[in-house]
UniProtKB/TrEMBL annotation:
Topology within the bilayer: Multi-pass membrane protein
Protein name: SSS family solute:Na+ symporter
Protein's organism: Actinophytocola oryzae
UniProt key word Transmembrane: yes
PANTHER family recorded: SODIUM_GLUCOSE COTRANSPORTER 4, SOLUTE CARRIER FAMILY 5
Keyword tags: Membrane, Transmembrane, Transmembrane helix
Main location: membrane
């Protein structure tokens, strides 16, 4: 990155800097205002469970609209093309609907403060501690990825050294997250969602105009490295690394669409935390479903700009793209991670450039703030309060939450430099998800629907699944097993899921289950139907607020998108 700064410097002027300064003042102001409403740990960590569904729904999707979505998916668009849409239409929406309709009644109804706390009630302390630690580690690593990309933009904009950019970017996110807790993060995420869309939509339109419309993009992608295969989402061989069409489809549907997707969306506290902040069971259920509506169309403003960059930006065209796709360094020195920045540099006039930069910074701050706010909740409640300092006054844990937020920010500065070693950050992030989310989903889904599963099976299966994903990663990295693209993450996720299930069943067969009386509200068959239903009065009344109906509408549209593209 450092060697490219002179070539990639964004030509911002005073107008752009004024827009950016205004945006940062607004972000910090929201953090300060939210601080006035924080008087307890529940206010800080879960917004007092008082927010309406539309706010939590937009925050739900904005929390995911960080480095993973904006830079990572545009990088994937430049490298793989339309198959990247699978991360949305197969790898997100179905799991989001499942979370809203099936799993949120358990999370919200049990009044847990975090996903690891649900693990504590279902499986006991060992599984709780394993989940708490693995989640905390994952959030610091993912926050580092968001921070690295945030710093990269500051580096290109101002020409500061990367390490200075990292520290300054981290300080801004820390300021408003530590001030106002989850409320500050959520209200900023709603603002950031609007800014992100407002920045990326014009970039997409201008980019399509530059390449001659959709048909012009089709012609240029067909003639370039990767060819026409990048214009259809199926079978996505370049994305999965499989040359066989059937294996590629199975990898996408099972590895991404089931294991990685359901593992991320249904058990990842970063997302679940937003729904837990909702003011009622119905609002909590609608949170991920409301988020699914914009999720369906986001590919058109993040993947297509990446595809345009792959055919219109000099540093990513032709031989440069071919070299990067082969895993080599591009002659230009650019990487796919810079696809969006390069396109902004080439296409946007001053003023619009400032809005676009603000949109990028907003996306990275949303992602990092989500990581920090979920990390401080899990660390404070599920590690510090549960195992280190029990039975202290509520104000003590509120102070610990703010201190832990600062510590997590410092750790993320360190992990940002791990992320900087990857040419495509989606490869890195999907690998992390295969380690942490896939085995957790296996444990969750088995424990939620199988009353016989024991506490010992919960933590032993979880550890076994994680280890198996790491083994697949090591075999791939050492060359023992060649899995190009993101195939290693898909295979690792599948292995983690299967091994976790097999080990959990085997351990359950030789250990004692919990009494049935202790599993009500934690196991589907033992939870009364009325406890799994939404309220139908007041703000929750009306057919248009029915989670099942809304989920059905989203599902039909998603199926249509998969057929069309």
């Amino acid at each position: 990155m450092q060697t490219m700064a002179a070539d990639l410097r964004l030509d911002a002027n005073a107008v752009d800097y004024v827009l950016l300064a205004f945006y940062f003042v607004l972000v910090l102001g929201i953090g300060y205002m939210a601080r006035r409403h924080v008087s307890s740990s529940i206010d800080f960590f879960l917004s007092g469970r008082s927010l309406p569904a539309w706010v939590t729904g937009l925050a739900f999707i904005s929390a995911n609209l960080g480095a993973i979505e904006v830079m990572g998916m545009s990088a994937n668009g430049a490298e793989y093309g339309m198959p990247t849409a699978h991360y949305f239409w197969i790898g997100a929406v179905p799991a989001m609907l499942f979370l809203g309709v099936v799993m949120m009644p358990f999370y919200y109804g049990s009044k847990v403060r975090s996903v690891p706390e649900f693990m504590l009630r279902r499986f006991g302390k060992p599984a709780h501690l394993v989940n708490g630690i693995s989640f905390a580690v994952a959030q610091v690593l993912i926050a580092g990825a968001n921070l690295f990309l945030l710093a990269s933009v500051v580096n290109l904009l101002l020409g500061w050294p990367l390490w200075v950019s990292v520290v300054v970017a981290a300080a801004i996110v820390l300021s408003y997250t530590a001030l106002g807790g989850l409320s500050a993060a959520i209200y900023n995420e709603v603002l950031q969602f609007v800014v992100i869309v407002g920045a990326l939509l014009p970039l997409t339109i201008v980019g399509l105009y530059k390449v001659g419309g959709w048909q012009g993009l089709v012609d240029k992608v067909t003639a370039g490295p990767g060819g026409a295969e990048q214009l259809d989402s199926w079978p996505g061989n370049q994305l999965t690394g499989f040359s066989d069409n059937l294996l590629s489809v199975l990898g996408i549907v099972f590895g991404l669409g089931f294991v990685l997707s359901f593992g991320y969306w249904t058990t990842n506290f970063v997302e679940v935390q937003r729904a837990l902040a909702a003011k009622s069971m119905s609002a909590a259920q609608r949170t991920p479903i409301i988020g699914a509506f914009p999720k369906m169309v986001i590919p058109f403003i993040v993947i297509i700009p990446g595809m345009i960059a792959g055919v219109a930006v000099t540093e990513l065209q032709g031989d440069n793209k071919a070299a990067l796709m082969a895993g080599d360094a591009a002659p230009s020195g650019a990487t796919f991670n810079q696809a969006l920045l390069l396109l902004m540099r080439d296409l946007l006039p001053n003023g619009m450039l400032g809005v676009a930069i603000a949109g990028l910074l907003a996306s990275f701050m949303a992602g990092m703030a989500a990581n920090l706010s979920s990390f401080n909740t899990v660390f404070t409640y599920d590690i510090w309060q549960a195992y280190i300092r029990k039975d202290r006054p509520d104000g003590y844990y509120l102070r610990i939450g703010r201190v832990v937020t600062a510590i997590a920010t410092v750790l993320a500065i360190g992990t940002a430099f791990i992320a900087s070693t990857y040419a495509n950050l989606m490869d890195y992030l999907q690998q992390l998800f295969s380690f942490f989310n896939a085995p957790l989903f296996a444990t969750f889904i088995l424990g939620m629907f199988w009353r016989r599963m024991t506490a010992a099976a919960g933590w032993i299966g979880l550890v076994s699944g994680t280890v198996s994903a790491i083994v697949v990663f090591v075999l791939s990295e050492s060359g023992v097993w060649t899995l190009p693209g993101q195939g290693a993450a898909f295979v690792g996720a599948g292995a983690a899921f299967v091994i976790d299930i097999v080990v959990s069943v085997a351990v359950t067969a030789v250990t004692q289950p919990k009494p049935v009386s202790e599993l009500a509200g934690l196991v589907y068959s033992l939870t009364p139907k009325e406890d799994r239903q939404r309220e139908v009065t007041g703000d929750d009344a009306g057919w248009y607020r029915n989670p099942g109906l809304l989920a059905g509408i989203v599902l039909v549209i998603t199926i249509a998108l998969n057929i069309i593209f």
